[in-house]
């Protein structure tokens, strides 16, 4: 087991990864290359219905400083009939095509994300500076500190009236108690107030969290059945106090061989999902996933493909 309680985001993470990670209904392609100087360039493309998303991420490491520069592009196709009033603020971002009496607008939106991470300027401390262009209010400074009996993460927006976030966990690698809060200095109120408790032993991890300012209670567990084949089972129960509604999700995973993993999950609303993931070369993964609504068989099942290539 890991040393120390970790950060607040680690509470219930094993169960979340088992139940939700790698499931998708989109088409995704990712390729990573490395330059002779050690710069990693990752290009990704995702198709979600009529929406196409693409980004290029460049990562440069120098001793304990990591710089990530990500150019994100999204496009959407819209059809308008003459006479038309374009809801486009920046026409320089749009490609206009006239077909008969229709105007086809392909809107491209560009954003630049930059993250600078300084790992351990002193023992246990990590500093993260991030900002987004052209959003001048997106700057954020985050500090993370890990100790044998505590884990703290705090961030503040680099604006005149920032949102301040604080999360902290105390305990050991067996039992940990934590909280996660955000305060909007402009509005003068808390935008987030969560609390969590986790218990970990050799093959079982259980977590209990209270989210949405006390509106939602989540309980989850993860049980490693057979480590040699990565066989595990898990479940999550979520109760909403405002609607008095429960959501129950159960899932499992198993490695057919050292390179192939299958996962499946089902919830109380009748939705059944499954995936198979194959590592056809080191760090290169091919994933096929699908979802069926057993209470609406007449609806088309959802399918997703993901291909990640790394040298």
Automatic annotation (TrEMBL):
GO terms for cellular component: mitochondrial outer membrane; pore complex. Keywords: Ion transport, Membrane, Porin, Transmembrane, Transmembrane beta strand, Transport. InterPro entries: Porin_dom_sf, Porin_Euk, Porin_Euk/Tom40. Coiled coil: none annotated. It is found in: Membrane. Belongs to the eukaryotic mitochondrial porin (TC 1.B.8.1) family. This is Voltage-dependent anion-selective channel protein.
């Amino acid at each position: 087991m890991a040393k120390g309680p970790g950060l607040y985001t680690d509470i219930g993470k094993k169960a979340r990864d088992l139940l939700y990670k790698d499931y998708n209904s989109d088409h995704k392609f990712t390729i990573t290359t490395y330059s002779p100087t050690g710069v990693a360039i990752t290009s990704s493309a995702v198709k979600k219905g009529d929406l196409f998303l693409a980004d290029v991420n460049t990562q440069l490491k120098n001793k304990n400083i990591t710089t990530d520069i990500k150019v994100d592009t999204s496009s959407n196709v819209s059809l308008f009939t003459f006479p038309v009033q374009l809801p486009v603020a920046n026409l320089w971002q749009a490609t206009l095509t006239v077909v008969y009496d229709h105007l086809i607008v392909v809107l491209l939106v560009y954003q630049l994300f930059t993250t600078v991470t300084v790992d351990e300027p002193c023992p246990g401390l990590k500093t993260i500076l991030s900002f987004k262009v052209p959003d001048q209010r997106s700057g954020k400074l985050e500090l993370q500190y890990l100790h044998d009996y505590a884990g703290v993460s705090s961030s503040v927006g680099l604006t005149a009236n920032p949102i301040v976030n604080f999360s902290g966990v105390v305990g050991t690698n067996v039992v940990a108690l934590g909280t996660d809060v955000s305060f909007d200095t402009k509005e003068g109120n808390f935008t987030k107030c969560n609390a969590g408790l986790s218990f970990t032993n050799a093959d079982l991890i259980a977590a209990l969290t209270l989210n949405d300012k006390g509106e939602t209670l989540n309980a989850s567990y993860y049980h490693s059945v057979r480590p040699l084949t990565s066989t595990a089972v898990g479940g999550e129960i979520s109760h909403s106090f405002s609607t008095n509604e429960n959501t129950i999700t159960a899932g499992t995973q198993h490695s057919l061989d050292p390179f192939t993993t299958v996962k499946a999950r089902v919830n109380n609303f009748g939705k059944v999902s499954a995936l198979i993931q194959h590592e056809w070369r080191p760090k290169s993964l091919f994933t096929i996933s699908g979802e069926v609504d057993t209470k609406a068989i007449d609806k088309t099942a959802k399918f997703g493909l993901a291909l990640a290539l790394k040298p």
